[in-house]
Amino acid sequence: MSDLCRLNCKACCQKNNIFIDLVDRIVRRPSLQFPGQWGYQCYEPRVYRTLAKILRHVDLDGFDILISDYITFVKRSEYRLEKHFNHEFTEICVNTILYWVFARKGNSKFVELLLQKTRDYIQDRSCSLALIWRTFTPVYCPSPLSGITPLLYVAQTRQSSILKILLQYGILEMEKKPINIVFTILFYPSRVRIMDDHELIDIHEDAKRCLQLCTRVLSSIPVTEIKTQQTFGRHPIISDWLDYIPSTRDKEPCELLHLCRLAIRNQLLTKTQLPSGIVFLPIPIILQHYLNLET
């Protein structure tokens, strides 16, 4: 932390930026270090408390400002802050943001806004601003260096409304092994969701909805592999799961209409125009809805 004291943190970002102000407070008033305490453990609680206080009560407009501040901070701080500290600080911030958006709030409007703000970075998984590919700890933990991706967490908790938004933005299509998400929806143990905007939802109905959404994105779902998992003693959360997978995703040839949907979505995804570019296509509204996974 002593090396950081030589930095003029407010010079690297615009004034009134949430994150640069937070860095400035850490640098000017470093926490007392006890024997054996080092690194992010010194300032992590302060970062979490500050961001948690904001995120706990923030509305969509406030969240828009927070994400804009984070993007500005990352773009301008990369070459001005000590590399190791910058990495640790941004990891803590990302962990806290994703934790509150996905594990605590579980609000689809916040998720969609997050994707809208970071859409330009989705194609590059290594980009620190591609927040949807970063990991977070679903239950708050001091270490932000391990966890799961938002897509995997949403599959584990069967949040169908949020999964739909992630799929609309092509997140499942960019997964290396999309079938693993299907396995998670079917076989991951049920657990209580802890969210601010908690609603009583039938977890089985939500799981069915999640499975149906996946069939709108994938060209095939290996039913044999799912049955193999059952022979190993794994029990799907949906007893009649096969009824929710069309035969054209397994045994029969896939519908030409669905293949066209996948091809068009892939082109839009490559150009970072998914799903916003769908409305500009010269096709009937009903087909636009089909491309956007509404049906």
Give the helix/strand layout.
Elements: H1 18-28, H2 44-57, H3 60-77, H4 83-105, H5 108-118, H6 150-157, H7 160-168, H8 179-187, H9 203-215, H10 223-231, H11 256-270, H12 285-291
Structural summary, described in words:
- The chain has 295 residues and is mainly alpha-helical.
- The protein folds into 3 domains: 1-147; 151-251, no CATH class; 255-295.
- 50% of the residues lie in helices and 0% in strands.
- The protein has 12 helices and no strands.
- The protein is globular, with a radius of gyration of 21 Å.
- The N and C termini lie far apart (54 Å).
- Belongs to the ankyrin SOCS box (ASB) family.
- Residues 249-295 form the SOCS box domain.
Note the run of SSEs as H and E: HHHHHHHHHHHH
Biggest sheet architecture: none
* Radius of gyration computed on alpha carbons: 21 Å
Q: Could you state the oligomeric state of the chains shown?
A: single chain
Low-pLDDT stretches: 1-14, 32-38, 194-200
Taking all residues together, what is the mean pLDDT?
85
Q: Strand portion, in percent?
A: under 5%
What is the share of helical residues? 40-55%
Secondary-structure class: mainly alpha
Pathway: Protein modification; protein ubiquitination
Protein name: Ankyrin repeat and SOCS box protein 17
Family: Belongs to the ankyrin SOCS box (ASB) family.
Keywords: ANK repeat, Ubl conjugation pathway
